[in-house]
Design goal:
CATH topology of the largest domain in chain A: Peroxisomal Thiolase, Chain A, domain 1
CATH superfamily of the largest domain in chain A: Thiolase/Chalcone synthase
GO biological process, one term (chains A, B): fatty acid biosynthetic process
Number of helices of chain A: 11
Organism (chains A, B): Pseudoduganella dura
CATH architecture of the largest domain in chain A: 3-Layer(aba) Sandwich
Structural class of chain A: alpha/beta
GO molecular function, one term (chains A, B): 3-oxoacyl-[acyl-carrier-protein] synthase activity
Strand content of chain A: 15-25%
Number of domains of chain A: 2
CATH class of the largest domain in chain A: Alpha Beta
Pfam family, one (chains A, B): ACP_syn_III
Distance between the termini of chain A: 19 Å
Oligomer: homodimer
Order of helices and strands of chain A: EHHEHEHEHEHEEEEHHEHHHEE
Strand order of the largest sheet of chain A: 4-3-5-6
Protein name (chains A, B): 3-oxoacyl-ACP synthase
Chain lengths: ~325, ~325
């Protein structure tokens, strides 16, 4: 994982915004978050990739595919993976690169999809990286929305399990509820609200907007059944899951998830107070922390789950 | 395939730009191109999907995954496939959706990747759609760059071949030469050149810029060997390929491709004069026209090949 150099506590935000001490933390649930100043998404992604490569004990010549699975673009063109490839100085390596995107669930979609390609032997080692710098597009006067986000990146190396290894993907699913397509959005940045096509200033359209209550209503009705089917398909049950690694959407969303899914005490990986909502980087950062803090042992099962702009629900049950 | 309602001939552009008759065609090689006025990328994509579904004789309940493989974003958030899903009114269908992106080669990357998922039985029928509206970001005073682009969309349905069917993917490859990462680019639209992060006006940064000669130099040295390896891996040779379907980068690029790859006369699918460079929609539109015009018969081989911003080379040899 990688984060920008600058970290900002909620106490600092209180002072900056002229609020009574404790206001920002009470409204956001975030103690500190990391905010990019000069770092680009590709730079954070590259640092996460180098860390994953070292952890895996591999060298770049072992990696034959680099997939960027981020929620937002670094530039409109070229795609994120090409920018990360350039940032890593891999030009002399003849790597395949492409992006896989599904907003906050991009990492899940990428892990799911690429597992089939390593299983089939198409690629030997896939570097999968999620990186988002979403905090430039925030309205800091709307603290509950703006104050929860942080920047970051996280990467994993995927390969086929060797005989005798426990790692396995037991079930995986993704479903789009596009009735909520406008519940979370950044209108500008693409062709629909191009500066040439929009009469007024573009800046207001490049800010993130979320209708939290509408998201909650749509998701609350669906997620418990969705999680149950994931467990059923994996032939397991919630009480056998060592850790549930969710997308870190908000403190409220995490609390509801624990309750609605009946996650046993201490099994939910909640890094929200330490990092905020890091968009696509949330899930792999939480996964990295859960594994490196020893919350899942080899052979134990874990669940990844979340909801992102789309709206899309996604989840996966794995053996570590 | 789908195109916007408005078509613009090079003769019309001559008049609009106050140029001597024939100038635009001579500089671009495009007779007419389709330009979006009110259409969004998701609308064009949805029309292409409906056409592909009808061609395949399927209904939406048969499609369990929708993948958008475009070069540019429709909005910064959510991702393209969710917007297409909403545009198609598929909310009551519980479809998986995500994006696969590799600029102009997004369709190739998507076809390649998703072939493994249908082969493994993860999805039964995948709708894969490419749609780009790039023409808002053009500088029409630079005709050789701006005048070659057109808008459009094209879609295919992918499924596993049944016993006795000839369809097969024989070889596929993708390589990124990120020394050329800045040769084709639209800087703004993402977090790197966010309106909040850039001092000056954002519009100049949201225009497409290409260093054609640098692209050519990098690619000309690499593409012939790349194509030869694709043919070798497929166990075939250029004289056995019924049709070569290239990305329609420019007339010069197409002419050089035919010469450098030794493509026999009449085998190159060149739709450039009729549609221009439709970014990610070029390859599937050319494929659709090649198949619907009867240029490839069942059991014959075809090659898809191209280069896109990244720079990335990609190619595939298939049996139809």
């Amino acid at each position: 994982m990688a984060v920008p150099a600058r970290q900002v506590s909620s106490a600092e935000l209180d002072r900056e915004l002229g609020l009574r001490t404790g206001t920002t933390f009470r409204q956001t649930g975030v103690e500190r978050r990391f905010l990019s100043t000069t770092e680009t998404a590709a730079q954070l992604a590259a640092r996460a990739c180098e860390a994953a490569l070292a952890d895996a004990g591999l060298r770049w010549e072992d990696i034959d595919c680099l997939v960027a699975a981020s929620a937002t673009m670094d530039q409109a063109l070229p795609y994120n993976a090409a920018l990360v490839h350039a940032e890593l100085g891999l030009d002399h390596r003849r790597t395949a690169t492409f992006d896989i995107g599904a907003s906050c669930l991009s990492f899940l979609a990428g892990l799911d999809v690429m597992s089939y390609l390593v299983e089939a032997g198409r690629y030997r080692h896939v570097m999968l990286v999620s990186a988002d710098i979403a905090t430039f597009g925030l309205d800091w006067t709307r603290l509950k929305e703006g104050g929860i986000f942080g920047d970051g990146a996280a990467a994993v190396v995927i390969r086929k399990a060797l005989p005798g290894e426990t790692g396995a993907l037991l079930s995986s699913s993704m479903v789009t509820l596009s009735a909520g397509v406008n519940h979370c959005r950044i209108p500008a940045g693409g062709s629909r609200f191009h500066p040439r096509r929009v009469a007024g200033p573009i800046e207001p359209l490049s800010l993130f907007r979320m209708e939290g209550k509408s998201v909650f209503r749509l998701v609350a009705a669906e997620l418990p059944d969705f999680a149950r089917r994931l467990l059923d398909q994996a032939g397991t049950a919630m009480d056998r899951i060592a850790a549930v690694v969710p997308h870190q959407a908000s403190q409220l969303a995490l609390d509801h998830l624990a309750k609605r899914l009946g996650i046993p005490d201490g099994r939910l990986v909640d890094i929200f107070a330490r990092y905020g909502n890091q968009v696509s980087a949330s899930l792999p950062t939480a996964l990295h922390l859960a594994l490196s803090e020893g919350r899942v042992r080899r052979g134990e099962q874990l669940m990844l789950i979340g909801t992102g702009a789309g709206l899309t629900m996604g989840g996966m049950v794995l053996t570590y």
